[in-house]
Design a protein that fits this description.
Chain A has 116 residues and is of the alpha+beta class. Chain A has helices at residues 11-23, 28-38, 47-59, 83-107, 111-114; strands at residues 26-27, 63-69, 75-81. Chain A starts with 10 loop residues before the first helix and ends with a helix. In chain B, the strands form 2 sheets. Chain B has a 6-stranded mixed barrel. Chain B starts with a helix and ends with a helix. The chains are: A alpha+beta (116), B alpha+beta (897).
Chain lengths: 116, 897
Amino acid sequence: MGEKLDVQRGTLALMILKTLQVLGPLHGYGVARRIEETSRHQVTLNYGTLYPALVKLEQEGFVTAEWRASENNRRAKYYALTAAGRRRLARETRDWNRTADLIAAFLAPRRREEKP
Amino acid sequence: MRYLRAAFARLVGVFTWHRTDDDLREELRAHLEMETAEYTRRGLPPDEARRRARLASGGLAQAAEAVRDQRGVPWLEGTVVDLKYAVRALRRTHLFTAVVVITLGLGIGANTAIFSVVRGVLLRPLPHRDGDRLVYLRHSMEAPGGENLTFSVPEVRDLRGGAPSFAGIAEYSSWSSIHETREGAERIAVGLVTGNYFEVMGLGPVLGRVTGPGDDGPGAAPVAVLTHEFWLKRFAGDPRVVGQRVTLSSKPVTVIGVLQPAPFFPDRVDVFLNLVNSAHHLGATMLEGRTHRMTEVVARLAPGATVEKARAEVAAVYARMQVEHREAYDPASHYRVAVIPFKEVMGERARPVLVLLMGAAAFVLIIAAANVANLTLMRSVRREHELVTRAALGAGAARLRRLLLAENLVLALMGTGVGVVIAVGGAGLLESLARRYSTRASEIQLDLPVLGFALALAVAVAVLLSFLTPLPGEGSLGGRMAGAAWRMSSSAGKKRLQRALVVAQIAVSIVLLAGAGLLTRTLVRLSQVETGLITEEVLTMEVPLPTSSDVSRSPAADSWAKQRYAEMRRQVAALPGVIEVGIGSPAPLRRSDVMFDVKAEGMAVAAGEAMPRAELRTVGPEYFRAAGIPLVHGRPFAATDGAGSGKVVIVNQTLADRIFPGRDPVGRRIAWSGEILKFSPLTEEWRTIVGVTRYTQDGGLDAEPRPVVFMPFTQFPAVAGALVIRAAADASALAPAAMSIVRRIVPMAPIENVMTLTQYKDATLSARRLNALLVSLFAVLAVVIAAVGIAGVLAFSVSARTHEIGIRMSLGASPRRVQRMILREGCLLLAIGLVLGLGVASFAVRILRGLLFGIAPDDPSTFIGVAALMAAIGIAACWIPAARAARIDPAVSMRAQ
């Protein structure tokens, strides 16, 4: 496995919101698994990173949480996107793409200067 | 919006914590189980699966802590815990706590007290509506007594016509009147004002109305507006006073209102009157005399106008005036007009003194904080073990810092409590000081902003102290834990910091001592100043008569007044124990503000040189003997120098030297001169000098010598009079008898300033005495704290080196040698501090320049004395720990390890 990436500030919230959008209501463990898989195991999440982020999102009203029975009949706390969460996801996705484009353009090799 | 929502959720989290804590534990357990199940599914044995799951997920406790930090308001919860802990820890070390609290209390108290004065006198917004739009016009010239000439009515008229930047120009003249009531008479301070005065000043009534433009002109009814203070003092705040008539200088005046409380300017005022109350103010003299200057001018800037623009306009108008009226503005005297923001003028006299005191107080705080810092450093060394243990148990650097901050906050806040008590105690003293420099002293109070200032100081000190203490480094945890258990480490860095603090304390103490030394020596110099007269056993009292404003115009009133004064003199002189009684105005040592140009017969003034000016004083024949003013030439006035006989004068040495340098002035003739005489009862007729008196220090012991012309009391209207009573012993005991005589002769006359010349001389020094006292107090405080500081650091050094000293002694070092070693350590710090302090002081004392007398700010003997004193105290302070080091028993000290 290659080197692990540090989760940048703010991007974890985006990943969580996206995961909940794609998979629907999900417990913390499921969110962690999904993010690790999607990142091809470049990101691993332990409790200390994941749960504060979830609590924060819940406090800010972007997700709701409720206890439910899980697929194999365990009790687990399920998180679900709220309308505000959906709006934030849309906005941050847009912002992130724009930033990514900008950085990509910025870091692209400048052909003209390389000519002799 | 989002931030607010989150903040609110967090705050709720603080109070709903228990429910969510369980909830979280449950959730984490579910997570762990799922993780374990996943590993089991992949085929690991249950125990191994659980272990791997734990590893992958990180510690439960850490996660809970991280979530807790996220969920609640961690710093709030943490701070409460920290504060509780800090109080407990400080209770354990009560000696340390007491020293720190008292030290900080002194520093913060001094600063809070001084700041309350600065705020009241300089910073508080004026109560005047848009007070920052007010300006004061100062008319001055370069000659003694020319610092503030005030304006004449024609000058004000010109200004009104040529300065559109002013929305209004108000006139004010200081006057006095005698307020007659059934209980007796008193002289009150009066402000004669134009109708627009209150509109321009932006002041309104609390009762009735203030004057308006309708109260101007000769046809208006005489009306009075009482100041708030006078209303409370004389009328007990009775609202029925509006509409009542009062008797001022024997004339009825209707009270129309009471003014809102406002600082007086330029002098204290009891009653404001419209101009019709003074016949003089509506007379041709006042209205037409360009050099008849007695009007203060305050103006309000028009909307959009700036002070700069107003200055330019005033300068242009004034330049035109000088061209059109050459006779009124002698070019050699450099006349000019300054436009000054009103608030600045109000604080003008207080500012230098307050800057000085503020500086001194700040220095005391610096020293106090340095001492506390040192104590904290020492304690931090003793606490090293505790801090290391905490760090090892997982407290992060920020957490430890916060703990220290909480402790220091508790200390500083306790210090502030003590400081506020000190400030309250010192408020009376400071107010009496401020009263001498400002009319805003009554605005001084320990209100919220002042307490806020004290609190801000406390927090600043606490933060500073918290970041001074080094935290245990992370790398060496194990070693430090082992080491700190038995050894008090004193890292080189920490030691350097301690020493630097001690050096700073000594240096700052030197600066304060130098200031105190200079001010005290100024005081000594001043009290050594020869007054020029024999002040012992002379009682003076001023007796203004209600007729004073009539005597210039009515010969009958004048001769009535003179008869009364003569009668008082005769009867008081008959009292047992009285040697001589003189009549004159003003009383000795007080300066006369009546000054005119003087010309000498046959002596031309060189072109470009200003005319000599002299004070006019009137005295009876016995005045000089009663006041103890020696005549150096000629004779005193005689009973034969009456109203009808030849005009004679006596001059003082200063005037004689000026106009007849090197010649005997007796028998020569001088005359008053100048445009302004038109407005006085004087003429330019020649008067023969019959005597020359010694120069006397009138108007303050530090006053520049002023030329004086004495005229016989009989040859000038009796506008005022004072009794000068020389007694064989204890002059002040004569006061009751003399006052009852005066009351019998003139029942309606107030009797003022009943005091001996010694008392008066003393009173002129009281402001400076207070200054010197305060700065000395600060200096003593600083030196004591610094001495404790240096002794403390050395004592600490000795206790840290006990083991080493034990070894030295067991190897043969004598106690004397050990003592010398410690002393040397202290003296080195002392010497560096002394050199540094003298260097800083030589610059810092420059702010004292205006407050010194007879001594240069860099006076070498003061500096040497100060250095010697500090050195002596410093060495004494070092002696105690050094002696203790010498008493160390090698056997005991080594076993102790």
